Amino acid sequence: MTQLPEGARHLPGHFDRPAQQALVDEIRAVLAEAPLYTPVMPRWGRPFSVRMTNCGPLGWVADKSGYRYQPHHPVTGKSWPEIPASLIALWEAVAGYDQPPEACLVNFYDDTAKMGLHQDRDEADLSAPVVSVSLGDDCRFRIGGTERGGPTASLRLASGDVFVLGGTARLAYHGVDRIYPQTSTLLKNGGRINLTLRRVTKASIDMG
Ligand SMILES: O=C(O)CCC(=O)C(=O)O
Ligand SMILES: [Fe+2]
Fold first, then answer.
1. Which of 72, 166, 176, 205 could form a disulfide with 7 if both were Cys (CB 3.0 to 4.6 A apart)?
2. What pTM does this model have?
3. pLDDT value, residue 36
4. Ligand 1 center to residue 79 CA distance, Å?
5. Which atom of ligand 1 has the smallest separation from the CA of 109?
6. Which positions are annotated as binding 2-oxoglutarate (predicted)?
7. Torsion of CA 12, 170, 115, 134, to 10 degrees
């Protein structure tokens, strides 16, 4: 595969350095309310190398019973904090979808973390794209087609980049092969943050 699948868009440097810094400050505030935790794979319970938390009315969680969205943090039991306004604005600018995102997954990768090839398909509404932001160290991102085992392409994502999976690519297999340590000075202790905005339900929801 030499080019990106239809509906996949890489927006290099969408956020400039000051905007990246502002986002990091907002994410630190999210982490203070909703700390990173280590999810585990369904069934076997093998821990992910990526630590996670969420903001938004719904958050994506993984534990022994499966993958799902839920309105509260699995460790603290508290509601997830709100999605920062700058990320709502990003969604409005690039998603082409008239409802707001409901979930913002926060992934934290240390120097050795990675994420295997997978599809994002736990959402009831697959007509909305997945919009993701990279902050901190670069990574090698891999993207293929909608069938497991097909050809893939890899590209380097850097701090401030935005990546959109929409159209046919909404169900494209993708993953993070590796982090390139010490390639960014944004996060003082290194590592990479990925923010992934998603619409989960079809209609507007009221979480009451
Ligand atoms: O870290 C990334 O760039 C991708 C994250 C991802 O695929 C996911 O959270 O589903
Ligand atoms: Fe994903």
1. 166
2. 0.95
3. 98
4. 22
5. 1
6. 107-109, 192-198
7. 20
Residue 110 known to bind ligand: no
CATH number of the domain located at residue range(s) 8-198 in this protein: 2.60.120.590
Query: What is the 3-class SS of the chain, one letter each residue?
Result: CCCCCCCEEEECCCCCHHHHHHHHHHHHHHHHHCCCECCECCCCCCECCCEEEEECCCEEEEECCEEEEECECCCCCCECCCCCHHHHHHHHHHCCCCCCCCEEEEEEECCCCCEEEECCCCCCCCCCCEEEEEEECEEEEEEECCCCCCCEEEEEECCCCEEEECHHHHHCCEEEEEEECCCCCCCCCCCEEEEEEECCCCCCCCCC
Q: Are 137 and 180 in contact (CB under 8 A)?
A: yes
Residue nearest to atom 6 of ligand 1 (CA): 175
Q: State which residues have CB under 5 angstroms from ligand 2, the bound ion.
A: 120
Q: Is 141 annotated as a binding residue?
A: no
Locate the ligand 1 atom nearest the alpha carbon of residue 163 and give its number.
3
**Residue-level pLDDT at 48:** 97
Is 31 one of the annotated binding-site residues?
Answer: no
C-alpha span between 180 and 93 (Å, rounded): 29
Atom 8 in ligand 1: which residue has the minimum CA distance? 196
Residue nearest to atom 7 of ligand 1 (CA): 175
